[in-house]
Design a protein that fits this description.
5% strand; mainly alpha; 60% helix; 121 residues
């Protein structure tokens, strides 16, 4: 892979990382104890809220948990790809060790498998 392509892919990964971090920060906070973990903000029940309002907040919290998990996984994959760029192994299939097609990386820069291995996975 040429340096220009690698630089563009790195930029794309860094931009996606920032976007994911911002999205996670909008409804959760980073857990300082566990690397890469975020904790969805639990509703703060006050005395002025009705039971119905509190129930809606709990439902919103409950639906945010799987979103948090999915975003954390995407963020972890992006960080993994950026680490691979640093150590020189980026763009190599983790299963067969062949190069991942540049078009696949442009579409999904955090890809860890070539298309053939992904389809057989």
């Amino acid at each position: 892979m040429d340096k220009n392509s690698l630089s563009q892919l790195k930029k794309k990964l860094e931009d996606r990382r920032l976007k994911l971090q911002d999205e996670l920060a909008s409804f959760s906070k980073k857990d300082e104890q566990v690397k890469g973990d975020y904790d969805t903000n639990f509703p703060d029940f006050g005395t002025t809220q009705s039971v119905d309002e509190e129930a809606l907040e709990v439902a919103a919290y409950d639906s945010a948990l799987p979103v948090e998990y999915a975003l954390e996984l995407r963020l972890a994959n992006i960080n993994k790809a950026l680490d691979k760029i640093k150590n020189g192994s980026y763009g190599q299939c983790e299963k067969c060790s062949e190069k991942i097609d540049i078009k696949r990386l442009e579409a999904m820069p955090e890809a860890t498998l070539c298309l053939k291995c992904q389809q057989n996975n």
